[in-house]
Specification:
about 130 residues; alpha+beta
Amino acid sequence: MRAAATSAAALALALTGSVVATTPAQAYSKVCTVDQNAYSICFDGNGDKFIVDDLRADGERAVVKWYAYDGSGREGECEDANGSFNGPVVCDYDFKEGRTNYVSFMGFTRKGKTGAKHNESWAYTGYITPR
């Protein structure tokens, strides 16, 4: 009788765990923000993509600057330089998977490729691997 009760409890726990668990697609992080009504930036962990959209007709481009904390030391920028309200730009990267791997990113606007930064955002974190 005791063995049957233990087996039933183990089965119930196993079933509960499978009901509560999320599918991999749901576990990826997508972090987005609109900053100062000038641009929107996102990191989508499902595909390692940055999405940046220029939302202000001010002659400046919208930029997302990122750093990968995946052991690679990589950093880069994704920018929307095609003018405001022309749809977002998607930059697709391949980051190293790992439970503790993430990217840190921030947005800003600037004139030209190397102009001074304006409208800087806070720093955000996006997880590369599902959590």
